[in-house]
Specification:
Length: about 210
């Protein structure tokens, strides 16, 4: 069971590990975060099912929101639609983006997409960047960093690993922060997830 970061009567926020699908793909995989969670709460006799409010890539770790029932899911997804959920990611990116802080604007599958980023630490061959997607396109952060010539370390879908000397066994992208107004209680929710162990180890190795 993934770590529970926040829970109340309407929502549960988990820390998803890298490498785990959120929902089944057309290949109909049986082991996904959704199936693990709902099998678990069914065994506990819970009177509700958990419904996904947004998605994370298989390769991305970090904070993900589920709703306890369809009604809170609808309300939470409306906040996402209105861009009232602030999502913050930490990404290790190849090289040194210039400028250190900017906004990437480009279309993804014909739809407008905007990502803000700022470099928070520079290493010898990569940078630690904080990224905030202002739109919610599939694989947006990965595509945008590739588009400016600085793909995420460990990227193998939108860049060829052989083109970059710095290697990583996993994609170095983590959903580290969420801020939103609770759709039922109106409470201000601010959640933080620390880097997973493999990203910490990567930092220590390439200090």
């Amino acid at each position: 069971m993934p770590e529970v970061v926040y829970e109340d009567d309407w929502l549960i926020v988990l820390n998803k590990p890298a490498g785990l699908l959120t929902i089944p793909t057309p290949k109909k995989e049986s082991r996904t975060l959704v199936s693990i969670l709902n099998d678990g709460i069914k065994a506990q006799g819970a009177p509700y099912r958990l419904h996904l409010c947004h998605r994370l890539d298989r390769e991305t770790s970090g904070l993900i929101i589920f709703a306890k029932g369809k009604s809170p899911q609808k309300k939470m997804m409306e906040l996402f639609r209105q861009r009232r959920v602030k999502k913050t990611y930490i990404a290790f990116v190849q090289g040194m983006p210039k400028p250190k802080a900017s906004r990437i604007i480009s279309r993804i599958e014909g739809l407008s997409a905007i990502t803000e980023y700022r470099v928070i630490e520079r290493k010898s061959s990569f940078s630690v960047a904080e990224a905030r997607p202002l739109t919610g396109r599939t694989n947006q952060i990965r595509i945008h960093f590739k588009s400016i010539g600085h793909p995420i370390v460990g990227e193998d879908k939108y860049a060829f690993r052989r083109d970059f000397p710095l290697k990583a066994k996993r994609l170095c992208l983590h959903a580290a922060g969420l801020e939103f107004e609770h759709p039922v209680t109106r409470e201000k929710i601010r959640l933080v997830s620390h880097l997973p162990s493999y990203m910490k180890e990567f930092l220590a190795k390439h200090a």
